[in-house]
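Hey all, quick one. A colleague (J.T.) asked me to put the magnesium ion job into the tracker so the inputs and the structure tokens live in one place instead of scattered across chat threads. No bug as far as I know, just bookkeeping. Sequence used:
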Amino acid sequence: MNDFKIIFSGPVGAGKTTAIGAISDIDPVTTDEQATDMTKVQKPGTTVAMDYGQITLDESEKIHLYGTPGQERFNFMWDILTQGGIGLVLLLNNTRPDPFRDMHFFLNAFQAFIASSKVVIGVTQMDLSRTPTIEDYHLQLENSGTKVPIFDVDARDKRDVSLLVEALLYSLDPGLGG
Amino acid sequence: MTSPPKSPVRLGAIGMDQRQLNALSLLFSSKCNNRYILVEEESAEICILDLDVFGGERLWEECRERHPDLPLILVSLKTRSISDSYTVFVQKPIPVKLLIMAIEKQRRLLLITTADEADLIDEETPAATEMKALERPDTPCEAPRAPPKVSRAASLMSVTEEKHFVGTAQDIDSNNPAQWEKIFYNPDHYLLGHLQQALNLAVKHNRNVAVEGPWPKIHLMAETHTVRVYSEERHLRPFCTIPDSTLEASLRLFDEVKSQASTFQEYPVYAFFWKLALWASRGRLPEGTNLTQPIYLRRWPNFTRLVVTPHAIAIAATWTEQPRSLVDTAAALGIPQRYVFAFYSATKAVQLAGETRRAVDTLLAPQSIEQSSRRGLLGRLLDRLRG
Ligand SMILES: Nc1nc2c(ncn2[C@@H]2O[C@H](COP(=O)(O)OP(=O)(O)OP(=O)(O)O)[C@@H](O)[C@H]2O)c(=O)[nH]1
Ligand SMILES: [Mg+2]
């Protein structure tokens, strides 16, 4: 059984649960003890809310979609969670007080994972707050040395979420075909 | 600390900027096992000189005066023949394999003159193996590999849409200028050109601009940075695709309108120009585009709010990784050129893409696209997402 995972992260209300639901074959579940990754780090009695969805490719292959817990007190989980991950989908909520701070915080927190894989950024709730613009986000990363896909994403829209994940796949391998 | 095998060959680089030097250093360390190192000209055993830098010919002359028998590798975008037996010429962009062959050729010269024959690369040394590896067709330095076999459900676009946006043109031979004519279009001969003028005007005066002619009413709104079209798209499209159907255009500045009774479609300027460029292009290129100059992409387009033509995301991923020429992009991805040309037209119209002007981008030929070890899996996931 080949199992691979894509990690969805971002601040509270960024649309992680919704985005996973938009492309998952199963209804997204909020796990506590179910996921194997969790049990390794969990102290007895603690439960950690984490989103889980999956895309079945065939009988022997599944893509697991994990949403990190929104609250920062679960940061210790992230290293374990990202092991073997194929890439990071970072969702940012444009109505939050300082979405740039959120972006830098999460890029920094997942630095090691991103360095060994790829990241794409989806900015949600742009219909509710038009600024900052996608251009503004790019300017924030201008000197980072890499060009990151940053899309205006409505997490409720399957096409938006799919395009964002497609960009992740092509970043990993532009010669993928299609 | 591990030392590189034998002592590295000392190469001087003349007429190169810091970026070019970095590119060579990176190549020598990553692909050549540090067999070669860059040093100052004074201590170099072999020099490589870029003739395309300003005053390049003079640099060459002066270098020859200083060191009449220094093994020299000349590089330029323009081909030339050299009679001097201490000099070899390699045309840019340089395939890595040719560069290494040139260096090794010059190195033999060096060894023969110093009579140190024993140091010549024999068949079994690591360097020789490495060079053989470089000659294998599937290695990263080799030109375009065979097109991917699988043809996936092309994208989120219907066949009709694809015809409108990308056309059906066949590939052309970039070495045959006779074929070039049919792949170029002049944006000014389409509605796109008038909109571009209207945008300049709107920005300059910070006022709205009406683009008037026999087509449906179009208003470019300065404050919201949007375009309003007062009809359905299908009434607009002919003027965007038929050349010179827009000769009697006029641009009129106006201020905010009282609430208009008629309904309109509103587009962000960016998305509207993108679409107009695709309609005008239909798989062709803006006049004057260089087919072999590497293309850069300033940043990823905001694909979720744009028309996504087939292969657009793959091309964007390629160009954000490394600038690459239009013809080479199609070859490296194994896709028809029209998809690359259409995408370039759209990104150019919104000023996201352009031809590189940096010397480093034409120094080395781009490496072929590295295949992920998970390509099969990623491809299956891609199919599912589109399914
Ligand atoms: N208007 C609008 N609503 C959105 C958009 N994207 C997501 N939402 C909504 O935003 C709300 C929050 O989304 P969630 O998916 O719960 O966010 P989350 O990241 O899982 O949040 P936590 O679990 O609290 O960290 C939901 O009601 C979504 O339907 C968007 O682009 N626009
Ligand atoms: Mg949630």
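Adding what we noticed when we looked at it: The helical segments of chain A are 16-23, 36-41, 78-82, 99-109, 111-116, 134-140, 158-172. Confidence is low (pLDDT under 50) at residues 33-47 of chain A.
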